[in-house]
């Protein structure tokens, strides 16, 4: 394909934008390719593992994740515990604010404000979360003493009546949510306090490994959509690998491969899984997920909705 | 402003996308802010310095730059010489190809292909450029012996009858094009060969410093839109500084400020120029320009066209 | 302090190098500051939380971590499960190879080689790990059925007779090792297989939250040395926060703060914890940990050894 | 080679550090390789093009560049005009300060301080530079009216009696200094003011293209050591290419190749020049130059001095 001159026309849609990206160059080409891989994975009925780090739930992408689950674009979710906490906070009415990367952190501290990049979360939201979570744990404990993480999160999702909550949409649409480090956050602290009073209360992470392992099979096609790095990305790759490898993969991240970190690992490695047939089934796009993911996914949604492949449209 | 849940709706436009970005978080917020600064600079009739590195002309952004000049969104252009060469190549019919970041470079070399990221330029295009440029220099030399760079580039622009050429649109719309390192490319080699035969042929870079200095005045409002880093960015900042500083600035780059380089310098420094009134007049967006610049600028163009502030729509 | 001209002299030591870095500029200044913070935290008898991601254990830094534990420069370790697995592999005789970032991944796959950046790990090493871990789990299960992660890792460390193993040195020197996502790797798979046969085998992550919480107290001084990002960094920060915040912090990473990720969060935020007195107690250094961490830490070790503040020298 | 456990020993030298880096992993391996390429290029008597951006002259690396020229480790210099200006400022007694990346830029502006990353340059230094440069231009103009840039810089170097000045050491050791964008800085402004009074004063950039072209020949071996990106890197690559390509190349930069920029282009492309025999002759190291370059170069200097291959030791 030749490089084509990009041109604006009035009322240009996101779909038309991404069509032009195909022939612009650099990361815009990779983004357009990611959109195509999204379409391919859905058309081939692959099981889609969608992974994201907690900072994306802090951001407004949280509602988009919920929508994607509802539309049938995600079959398994993997995230970190901060994402669980903040989804609950938002579902129970807490508001996060658009702030500034260059804030005076000492001043924010005095005001009881936590900064995540250019977003602000009040200490009060954490306190309200505590008030919400303690009775929930009591109720769940009354049902059973030993919980796999994803089973616990399903119960919590059912309590959240918010269509923009990914936990709610997951529970409603039978999409399991995995969180391999469930104690690494305020939620972990509350679990600990609860266990202090109820020593037979068990969060069974080992059992949940089986759950994610059986969330797809060797015979099914599998796809990994990894937003950001960290263990959410690693966990999905690990589990698809144990099931023979994914056929499709899209990674979006700001990390680079030069440090040897998982966060920066590219889809090149996917070829070494032995199941990816060729380069047209994988894409790595370097840049900010809040900008890139909506664009690429919207392009795919527009195509898939025309073909009637989306649920609940 | 509160963080808002992002939602797709069918046929969403780029304008609507960026409106949602305002309340998503991280770089999407900065991108939405960049769009607002573009609108502000145009509404206030600031002289707009648009700077870009040559790899952006290799890409399809080249046609967008030409369109922006035509629309009146750029009053002064600063770029590197590779951008000049490739604009001419494209205007004279050369085609560049979408390739791959992970190509076999030895094989490409044997095929006479040059790689710029994931874009391919044939050696033949450079040879055709040589055939084109030599008679042009002869004609210009017959007009006069001593040329300021921007005056030379204006003459060249008038020879290119291609509405997607930024040199053509610049010449046609009286937008000067500055290139502070005119010899740093194939064009430099051809200038050198020409001077070998005509020792009184002079490319006067010092005179052109005066030209860019007088391209705006202390009294006028000024804006810098810097895409990528390098001397194109530095030159525009330097010249606006000598005229009292810019009122508006948008920087888009993948570089970070931690290395102390100009490419990574942010608009924070713009505050130190003493003329920026507040943070709402500057934006630094980190990421790939081929993705981010069209989106932010399109949002501004949609607004400005409604208000009748664009030329030639 | 003025910028000073850097000069080489024959047989220059690392200590002398870092002394010059103080007055060179950019990240070299931050690195020299990190060395000073290491000295301060040790002199003030702070509890030192050393966190690292698994790719650093893949690299030769693994032996350095073991040495630092032995010397008394780390009181609590937090890492990811890949680091646990690879420390065991190396301690049981597996060799990893220096490879290439640009390897042919399909070819590597056919040879049974896994690539981590420019390092190679054979599939065979994972199989040998499996052979080693299964009887170990059987023995531990015979001791007790329910294990907190750090208690399990301590037992494993005692089995590894390798002074270059961080698990061994940790166990020997009563340094707890925390791993908040113990199932996110091959080890998780083996735990799962074991639990299939022994359903009352429990890995208690909630109990371990209490263990890390009580690894230091409000009254003690605390320091966080975070190499790379991910949950290992986050977990140490979280736990020191719950104990009133750390007095000292050094972060080394390739990630930038612009994406709002934990990996890229800087020590600026440490000021918002309310206990850091001033900027001289924190340092964020941007770059590759394998280069930067040894240099900064060696500078500190040279000073601390002279003052007799290191153990086992 | 196997990955080896890194270990500190007391009074470890930089040479011993880099020897260990060879078997640590990630960028430390690339840095050790860069040291080897430095040794190879000198042993093979290649013409060494050393390029650096102006921010490195702002830093203390400036004195190291001067030392390297004196030792015979650089045969041709390419830099940007800011580097020229600041070398002169330092040679004429100006002091730059170690500051902070997170300074209050508005406050700095009011104090007349310019910030370059975490380094501070006073406005006064620029004023003193102006006082120094004007009579120098007058004297040079009396000698001749038309100057190639490198010839002008040689004359200036001879006026600076400072062994830590790279302009001085270059002039003294017959090392030409090229600066393809000589007007892109305060120096450009002074050249312009001077030309206003003396219209026949010409800075001939085209002639200087011939000078750099003949600074090496097709038959000589050539090496490019590029620190940072920008036109200084590009110019050296261009000129060695026109002479058949370099046999050796070391690039050190914080930029990544994913944006298609020259700053992020790696030495992989060097293979496409057709002269690099194998991977052992090139190295790309990602990270901060102020940390990495001294270490890698010192390792090479220690080896080369033992073999008597350095000048003036």
Summarize the topology.
Four copies of one chain form a homotetramer.
Chain A lengths: L13 H8 L5 H17 L3 E6 L1 H5 L2 H11 L4 E4 L1 H11 L5 E2 L6 H6 L2 E4 L2 E4 H21 L2 E3 H11 L6 H7 L4 E2 L7 H12 L4 E3 H9 L8 E6 L2 H13 L5 E6 L14 H4 L10 E5 L2 H18 L7
Parallel strand pairs in A: 1-2, 1-9, 2-7, 6-8, 9-10, 10-11
Antiparallel strand pairs in A: 3-5, 4-5
Helix pairs in contact in A: 1-14, 2-14, 4-9, 7-10, 8-9
The CATH topology of the domain at 22-94 and 147-183 and 201-306 in chain A comes to: Deoxyhypusine Synthase
- Annotation field: number of helices of chain A: 14
Distance between the first and last residues' Cα of chain A: 34 Å
Helix-strand string of chain A: HHEHHEHEHEEHEHHEHEHEHEHEH
Q: What is the topology, as strand order, of the major beta sheet of chain A?
A: 7-2-1-9-10-11
Name a few traits of the molecule:
homotetramer, 313 residues, alpha/beta, 11 strands
At a glance:
Helix content of chain A is 49%, strand content 14%.
What does this 3D model show about the protein?
The structure is a homotetramer of 313-residue chains. Chain A has 313 residues and is of the alpha/beta class. Chain A has a domain of 216 residues: Deoxyhypusine Synthase, CATH 3.40.910. In chain A, the strands form 3 sheets. In chain A, strands 7-2-1-9-10-11 form a 6-stranded parallel sheet, sandwiched between helices. In chain A, strands 3-5-4 form a 3-stranded antiparallel sheet. The longest helix of chain A has 21 residues. The model of chain A has no long low-confidence stretch (mean pLDDT 93). Chain A contains 14 helices and 11 strands. In chain A, helix 1 packs across helix 14. In chain A, a hairpin with a 2-residue loop joins strand 4 and strand 5. Chains B and D meet through helix 3, helix 6, strand 4, helix 10 and strand 8 of B and helix 3, helix 6, strand 4, helix 10 and strand 8 of D.
